[in-house]
Each structure stands twice: as C-alpha cells, then as structure tokens.
Amino acid sequence: MALEKPIIPTLSLAERDRRWLRLREKMRDAGLDALVSLPNQGHWDQFGADARYMTQIGGTQTEVGAVLPLEGEVTAIVRGANEIEWWGLAQDWVKDIRPSRRSYGEPVIERLKEIRAERIGIVGLAGLVRAPEGIVPWGTFEKIRAALPQAKFEDATDLMQEVRSVKSTEEIGSPP
User: Fold this and answer.
1) Domain that holds residue 112
2) Between 105-114 and 138-147, two packed helices, what is the crossing angle to 10 degrees?
3) What's the number of domains the chain is made of?
4) Three-state SS for 11?
5) Is residue 170 part of a domain?
6) In this predicted model, what pLDDT tens digit does every residue of 127-153 receive, in sequence order?
7) Which distant-in-sequence residues (6+ apart) come within 8 Å of 157 by Cβ?
8) Of all residues in the chain, what percent are helix, strand and coil, respectively (each to 5)?
9) pLDDT digits (tens, 9 = 90+) for 160-172
C-alpha cells in the first residue's frame, strides 16, 4: 500500500536554493569540500536542527544526517526504507535519501568518497549554547575519520550558525 503525502509545513525550493547558496559561499571561503551534520536526537529533536536546515527532513523523532557538497546533490541519511519513502513524499528539497540501518557512518563515508571530499566541515563538534561540548556522536565521527585518513576535518559549527542566524522573509513568515 502506497503512502499518502504527509501534511507537514514545508518551505519553497527558492528558500532551499537561498540556504544552499549561502552555505556554499561560506564553505568556499573556508576551503571546505563538504559540510556534514550527523544525527542527534537530544533535546527533543532540537539538536537535529542543522540537518533539517539543510534538507527539510527531520523532527517527528526522525534521525537524520546530511552531507552538503560544495557542488552537486545534497544527501540525507535516515534510518531505513520506510523513512526514505515517507520523507521522499513529505519534502521536495532532497532526492538523494539513503538508509543508515542505524549505522550512519557508512552512508556518510560513501557519499564523501563519491564527491572526493578532502576538507570536511563537521557541524556540532563544539560551541553550541545548549551543548558547549558538542553534539556529534563520537563513534560515528571516529568511524568516518578512520575511513578517510587523508581527509582534514574541521569544526563547522560557527559556519552553520552564522548562516542560520540570517532569516529570510519566508522563514519569518512575513507577507512578501
């Protein structure tokens, strides 16, 4: 039985493009090939806001990770096939949605290898107001670092927070 399109608030493709453009500008300035947000369900999904910002996927107790390359398609990583189908219907920002089977390192590694990322920004390593020590799952991060020994990893928390702090008219909900 096919799923019906979920009814959840969504933002436009123009908003997606605005966000991705700003993130990529900052990534280019920082010399990053990719930006990675790993899943974390802490604080009732509040710690998943960066992945949601990039993909419009998340909330409703969904674990989601994301890889935003400097160029090319953004990848979202969810638990399994049922979430791929559901989120494929619920949003139109990201088409490349991959299963993790609760092991998020492998699909992140796969995507980083596909795009040949050498300098990788990790969002949430440290410095968040509600989590000064970071929100990144240590085991997942270590798995990614071990699989990509030539890559350089950097904390991209400030980069993400700077971009997220500037709201568009659509995000605020004001009339055009």
Assistant:
1) 13-165
2) 40
3) 1
4) coil
5) no
6) 887 788 888 999 999 999 999 999 999
7) 123, 124, 125, 126, 127, 128, 134
8) 40, 15, 45
9) 999 999 999 999 9
